Amino acid sequence: MLEYALRPTILQEFKADLRGEVICPNDHGYDAARKVWNGMIDKYPALIVRCTDVVDAVHAVQFARDQHLLVAVRSGGHSVSGSSVCNEGMLIDLSPMKGIWVEREKKTVWAQAGLTLGEFVQATQAYGLATTTGTVGGTGLAGLTLGGGLGWFMGKYGLTIDNLLSVDLVTADGRVLRANATEHPDLFWGVRGGGGNFGIVTAFELQLHPVGPVLAGKVVYSMEHAREVLRFYREYTRTAPDELTAYASLLTTPAGLPAIAISVCYCGLLEKGERAVSPVRKFGVPLVDLIRPRSYLKLITQADAGAPAGRRYYEKASTLSDLSDEAIEALVEYGTACTSPYSQVLIQHVHGAASRVGPSETAFALRSKSYVICMVAAWDGGEVDRHIAWTRACWKALEPFATSGVYVNFLGHEGEGRVRAAYGVNYERLVALKNRYDPSNFFALNQNIKPTLKEGELCLRQV
Ligand SMILES: Cc1cc2nc3c(=O)[nH]c(=O)nc-3n(C[C@H](O)[C@H](O)[C@H](O)COP(=O)(O)OP(=O)(O)OC[C@H]3O[C@@H](n4cnc5c(N)ncnc54)[C@H](O)[C@@H]3O)c2cc1C
Questions:
Q1: pTM above 0.70?
Q2: Taking 90 as the threshold, does the pLDDT of residue 185 lie above it?
């Protein structure tokens, strides 16, 4: 285990300035505090700063700068690639910051960065309100929002970033800025998809919408019908109304049967929803039909059971503009050959409001109607190589049918070329923004947009 090489007095002074806790390798609770959701990630930061407010985040940034520490920023800890924790440096942990203030009349909310989606939705649904979030309750609101935010309401309300009104952010030089349509609009553009590249977001203001019970759940079919089911899914999604978002997944049932599921969520009037989902219910001979009205909170928190913390995960992702018969063949081949009962190939249909925003209106460039495919290997115990090999082979098989773009929140450590591909037409503008707000690449542990300023230019540059 690493020992932090700072003089104890310096560390003591830093601790005295903080309202939150500092946890070092020899402290009680260090092991629990350094762990993230993916059990594959095993890193040992030299110190963990558990921030309770924006002032703590500012102190942490200033201290890390003064001491030349590598910095990782963590909120929900659900980065599959483990980019929210580091070896040796400082982990700035926002997870204690769970404040949330709903403005019922305005249908807006200010939410702090440490909230999970489940906590966020619980608070907004208390007022009958919600906005687009991811599909699993334990995921962090912060990382999900900063990357874009795909979810069940994206057809009706757009991505999470399409509902973002403002952020409070701590910059690399320790200032606190508010960014929105009128204050620092360039930064506001960049944080809507640009991840943690420009600073630590301590709070998000989001637009909410009235959301009652949704009609949601999955219909499961035997894997032997996978081709027909995927062809049906292709036609079904082509004409889906904005209120209906549908995913498909090739998976193994709890009873151990290879299967294919279509999962839906309809977020309008339930009677209309019944009509919209009836083709799925009537198609073929399902093994089970689990579609029913339920609360949105229940929908996303029930999904937690399928993604437990501590299991090992590895994922890759592709974007397909259509599901050709050839792509379906590849999906079925690898969906059938997955190496663990917990692994799956997930197909997410991006459509409606999410696809009516221009690719350069926000940093998130992947605005065409598309199918975002995630091949997620998940397993307990050893045999790492076998599971990773399956994921990579599946991704490779889909490459001939994929567009060049990839969703940053599903990217692993795949190199600069893939980060460029994720941002497409927006990449150069993001580099210019990085030069402006983080020219020394202080925030480097993320899907990194590398600044291009040289040493001499750094000191001349003022934001
Ligand atoms: C089980 C599961 C389900 C998922 N489902 C969806 C889904 O439905 N839709 C979807 O779009 N994505 C989904 N994702 C992907 C998810 O959006 C990303 O993993 C996201 O980064 C998680 O956010 P987090 O706060 O938990 O991440 P963390 O691991 O805490 O952070 C992820 C990245 O964001 C940076 N970061 C975190 N907090 C801040 C902050 N406050 N300020 C600046 N930078 C910060 C970190 O430095 C790191 O680079 C899912 C992931 C998992 C594991």
A1: yes
A2: yes
